[in-house]
Amino acid sequence: MQGKPLPGKLLLIATPVGNLGDISTRVEKSLKDCDYILAEDTRVSIKLLNHLKIKKRMVSCHEFNETARTSLITQASQADQTIALLSDAGTPLISDPGYEIVQEAIACGMQVIPIPGPSAFVLALVGSGLPCNRFVFEGFLPDKPGAAKTRLAELAPDNRTIVFYVSPHKLAKTLTLVRTVLGDRRACIARELTKMHEQFLRGTLSQLDDFASNNRVMGECVLVVASSDDSHQGKRHSKASEDTVVKAIKKMISEGRGVKEISTHCAEQFGMKRSQAYQLALRCVKKVD
Length: 289
Hints:
With 289 residues, the chain is an alpha/beta fold. The chain has helices at 25-33, 42-52, 66-78, 99-107, 120-127, 145-155, 171-182, 205-214, 231-238, 242-254, 259-270, 274-288, and strands spanning 9-13, 36-39, 58-60, 82-86, 111-115, 135-140, 161-166, 186-191, 199-204, 221-225. The chain has 3 domains: 9-117, 3-Layer(aba) Sandwich (Cobalt-precorrin-4 Transmethylase, domain 1); 121-229, Methyltransferase, Cobalt-precorrin-4 Transmethylase, Domain 2 (2-Layer Sandwich); 240-288. The longest helix is centred in the last third of the chain and has 15 residues, at 274-288. The protein is elongated and about 85 Å long. It starts with 8 loop residues before the first strand and ends with a helix. The model has no long low-confidence stretch (mean pLDDT 91).
């Protein structure tokens, strides 16, 4: 519980993720009325202000100086000021700086007011075609492969749709890692959201991995992955006849793949028990020999 709030307001303003037409009248008014702006990158935010023909003082606030910037919040509270917090795109604090700023504002008794707008992961989720009733947002996976694999292993049994942010230059490697750890689930890549070349790529992780490995993917991406108990995934698996599996095995044998690799792939692709896939692959190999 807190006592009587000190003066001052902190506005958490969501900005467009690519289409300036998504700016609301409330966002525009908030930017006009605030005393100054804490911006993740002033070089990015100035483009938004110029578009709106707003002249406003801006102070940088990013991951490397956020702790130091908290002193400005205390000063703003004492001076009864209204401060706007902007990230480069989308909603502040969502895989962006701002947590420490909000904590300081709350500690000072300031009003913290979110101004709604776009968020890339929400747009990707609702457009993915995957269940949205229960989901988990993971942001970016750790940079180190070992740490990323550990995190994915923790997520493997989760029965919620999983959403990740992925840099385009890491997309192919990320898809391979996610498929290896989680299995070949339904998934969707959303890129260039709200822009002219917005694209939703839907398929299995192996299909998306193949696409990303053979095509240059531009723009920040959102990866949406089906849950561990995805019912559509189960239906897809159940439709695979033994003839279909054998055909896939023979193709992999012709490519020179070993029995262990083939059985692992079939277990993931067709929802088979690994032991069953191994015996079937072994039988096919013996017939070829």
